[in-house]
Predict the 3D structure of the following.
Amino acid sequence: QVQLVESGGGMVQSGGSLRLSCAASGRTLSNYAMGWFRQAPGKQRELVAAISSDGSIKYVPSAKGRFTISRDNAKNTVYLQMNSLTPEDTAVYSCAFKFGNLLLSAEGSYNYWGQGTRVTVSS
């Protein structure tokens, strides 16, 4: 079992920044890929960014240049730094763990999920 706990969400004005954290327990993350997903109201959940154990990274086009995913294996934690936020980024953000190291976009590829943290960006 892998337990994932997100933190760092909240309300911010357009143009602001937030840093999300995802702390894991139950398994060392260092050998596996991790992803950050988001689900906006009325929309399907989508991958925002994913990172492999060797540091390879994948971003959704809307996140490139604004968001940065990183990991601290010593702390068993993955981060998502979000800058230049817009109201379109408003969503519940969840981190996810998958066995293996491929950077896949499908949520069905991920095995464990956190409970999510809400991000609200006001205009």
About this structure: The two ends are 40 Å apart (CA to CA).
